[in-house]
Task: inverse folding
């Protein structure tokens, strides 16, 4: 036996490895990936789903579906909705005897509504035409707005150029000897300051 052990890798020198022990799958830790369908999150989700289904089965066995259908089994914040539905259903049961005549009236009303809907329904060609008209109107509107903006911009540029020319004429005037006319320049600056304040 000692010879077998020594031959089977008991020499713990360089390169000798110890054999790994086998462990069951539950003790191996995290296996696989979520893409492979073996990730821990996937397994946990499956486990929770199984527990939930098991719980639902138990509840179905304990509670019959007819018992307090609208009262206890619903969340508190939705309870009033289910109670209102229950009252509406009770009223409907009472009205069924009286509703034979009203059903005939309803049928007539429904038929008239159906015929109106048939006339109101549009073919795909009509829908396409309407869409085309809408798009055409929108484009025309955009074109008009762009034209207005362009005209305003041109008007603003024309006024700006006119003011620039007036300023240039005043500032470029010379005296008889060819010197700049400082009196006109000072008056121009004074007017500019008065307009700004």
Result:
């Amino acid at each position: 036996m000692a010879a077998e052990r020594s031959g089977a890798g008991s020499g713990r020198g360089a390169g000798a490895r110890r054999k790994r022990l086998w462990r069951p799958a539950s003790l191996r830790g995290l296996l696989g990936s979520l893409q492979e369908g073996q990730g821990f999150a996937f397994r946990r989700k499956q486990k929770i789903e199984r527990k939930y289904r098991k719980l639902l089965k138990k509840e179905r066995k304990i509670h019959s579906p007819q018992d307090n259908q609208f009262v206890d089994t619903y969340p508190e914040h939705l309870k009033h909705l289910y109670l209102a539905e229950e009252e509406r259903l009770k009223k409907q049961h009472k009205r069924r005897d009286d509703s034979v005549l009203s059903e005939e009236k309803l049928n007539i009303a429904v038929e008239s509504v159906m015929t109106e809907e048939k006339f109101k329904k549009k073919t795909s060609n009509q829908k396409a035409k309407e869409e085309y008209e809408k798009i055409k109107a929108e484009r025309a509107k955009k074109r008009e707005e762009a034209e207005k903006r362009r005209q305003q911009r041109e008007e603003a540029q024309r006024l700006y150029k006119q003011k620039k020319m007036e300023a240039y004429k005043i500032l470029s005037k010379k005296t008889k000897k060819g010197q700049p006319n400082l009196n006109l320049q000072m008056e121009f600056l004074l007017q500019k300051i008065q307009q700004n304040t």
